Task: structure prediction
Amino acid sequence: MEPGGPLIETRLAEQYGVSRTPVREALSRLEQDGLVERGPRGLTVRERRPEEILDIYETRIVLESNLARVAAERRTSFDLVRISQRLEAAKQKPRDGHEAAITNRAFHQSIWEAGHNAPLFDLLQRLDLHLLRYPATTLFFPGRWEQAHHEHSEILEAISTRDADHAAESAKKHFTAARDIRLQLWEEGLA
Result:
């Protein structure tokens, strides 16, 4: 649904062939997650703004770098195998942005899992919902896929050697670069 578009409970219930109760519950959850806004005319899909990109990435940088640190400290051998497999799967550049986003998300989620910290994992999943509102991927920006793969390798190496400080710093560098590209895409009207 388009940003700014109205979310009318009865229409949505009709459109999806369900009663109003599950629609009401879903809209309430979306409002709690900050994906819809309540205004004078009711609920609408939240508008996209460059300030929101900054907010999302500032939060993500903090959470992802902390989670990389925790993963370096808590990871198991199985976690390393899973992260390595997902990194290996990302060697070839995907056909399109959708495939790139799925591959990238799988890699990052394997790090979240290696942190063995359910509250951090949950926060990152919820934050990921906000990024889905910006469908353009940073991964198809010229040279970004290769750069991201190198950064992913660096994060994995730090986690493998249990170098928590380097893991956190590498994750911070990785997401700072992604933020800067996302803002550039916004300025170019591509985000």
Summary: The chain has a mean pLDDT of 92. Strands lie at 36-39, 42-45.
